[in-house]
Design goal:
Blueprint lengths: L1 H23 L19 E9 L8 H23 L4 H14 L19 E7 L4 E8 L5 H11 L4 E3 H10 L7 H4 L2 H13 L13 E6 L5 E7 L20 E3 L4 E7 L1 H7 L1 H13 L2 H4 L8 H23 L3 E7 L4 E5 L3 E8 L4 E6 L5 H4 L5
Parallel strand pairs: 3-4
Antiparallel strand pairs: 1-5, 1-11, 2-3, 2-6, 5-6, 7-8, 8-9, 9-10, 11-12
The protein binds aspartic acid.
Length: 376
């Protein structure tokens, strides 16, 4: 096994060295121009707009169409940036800003209400290149909290700011603000009233749909992840969920994956979902050849996507075992865009340089081709 592993690692190293040499070699002249490179640089993006008890029988065709259109708009915005060679960071910010501005989702405009009848917003963002990260919690007047989280990442010595201090920092940096009416929607106010009238738990899963997130790999191989939310309807005592917690709701590491989560935040924090999945994947990356069947030729990329899905599913099973629910979106450093959720549905979408472009809401909706292990 060790010999086999060493041989395969040596072979992989040789391939990498050859690729590096090809990258840095002098540019080809017209005469000695080489045939087309084997593969174009890859890009990949996945987005979500929350997970929960979303069933087709409870949803009108008009609602489905509205959500699908909103998801498609955000997906296309991010995908266009990546296709043109833009950064994963720019792609996820553009997609999330659109979803924050869209009242259908529980982030920015359309956020759920706290027990006191306010909208308190949380967001986080992470760059897989250097693992720089920024997060904000409990802000009330910043139009796009994801941009504030990014400002914390790039322009402060800190990772996590909250409440009035975060707002002060935002004002000093000149971030766009909005009045309470911008964030407040009638549908979310009714959810709060229903919750209070029915004496439902503040953690009722049906009252927190719509957290948004995006993860992406750009053509330079850099990963980025971001998440933005209003949290849970009727939250009190300054409750903060997983969305702004780096390692719980958001994580990105160029060595493994970029991930954004949605669901019952308390459980995602306890499991450390985002970091747990990326870390398990990172630890497997160097050992992939070890786990592959000894007598088979290994398609490393196909292997990678299967392992990433297995790891994500098993961490989500842990969340479920503890009593939590929700879902994640994930893009691997090899360019695969995956979902894993243990709820009836998750508003989601993915697009890749290999031609995948789809949005979905209910369970099991992905196209056959896109769900199949890619054949490289
Ligand atoms: N995870 C969010 C929170 O716990 C809510 C959600 O994703 O639906 O605040």
């Amino acid at each position: 096994m060790t010999v086999l592993r060493d041989t395969r690692i040596a072979a992989a190293a040789l391939i990498t060295l050859t690729a590096l040499f090809a990258m840095f070699a002098a540019p080809a002249t017209a005469q000695d121009k080489q045939p087309e490179p084997e593969s174009e640089p890859k890009w990949s993006i996945a987005i979500h707009g929350g997970a929960g008890t979303i069933r087709r029988e409870d949803t009108t065709p008009e609602q489905v169409a509205q959500y699908e259109a909103a998801l498609q708009k955000a997906l296309d915005e991010g995908a266009a940036i990546l296709a043109e060679g833009g950064t994963s960071m720019d792609a996820i910010k553009a997609a999330i800003v659109l979803m924050e501005d869209e009242p259908l989702f529980n982030a920015g405009r359309g956020a759920v209400f706290t027990w006191e009848g306010e909208n308190e917003l949380d967001a986080s963002i992470m760059d897989g290149r250097d693992r720089s990260a920024g997060a904000v919690a409990g802000v009330k007047s910043i139009k796009n909290p994801i941009l504030l989280a990014d400002e914390v990442r790039t322009d402060s010595p800190h990772v996590f700011l909250s409440g009035a201090g975060a707002e002060q920092f935002a004002n000093e940096k000149g971030l766009e603000t909005a009045p309470p009416e911008w964030f407040a929607t009638e549908a979310r106010r009714q959810s709060l009233e229903r919750m209070k009238a029915d004496a439902l738990s503040a953690l009722d899963v049906d009252l927190k749909f719509g957290t948004v997130g995006a993860v992406a790999l750009d053509q330079d191989g850099n990963l980025a992840a971001g998440t933005s939310t209003g949290g849970m309807t009727g939250k009190r005592w300054g409750r903060i969920g997983d969305a702004p917690v780096i390692g719980a709701g958001t994580y990105a590491d160029n060595r493994s994956c970029a991930l954004s989560a949605t669901g019952w935040g308390e459980y995602f924090i306890r499991v450390g979902v985002a970091h747990e999945i990326c870390a398990r994947l990172r630890m497997e990356v160097s050992g992939w050849t070890v786990y592959a069947p000894a007598d088979e030729e290994i398609d490393l990329e196909a292997y990678a996507v299967n392992r990433a899905q297995d790891i994500a599913d098993s961490v989500m099973a842990e969340v479920k075992e503890l009593g939590g629910d929700g879902g994640i979106i994930l893009v691997t450093h090899t360019g695969d865009a995956l979902f894993s959720f243990n709820t009836a549905g998750m508003y989601r979408g993915r697009a890749t340089s290999e031609g995948v472009n789809e949005v979905a809401i209910f369970g099991g909706e992905e196209s056959e081709e896109a769900s199949e292990t890619p054949d490289h």
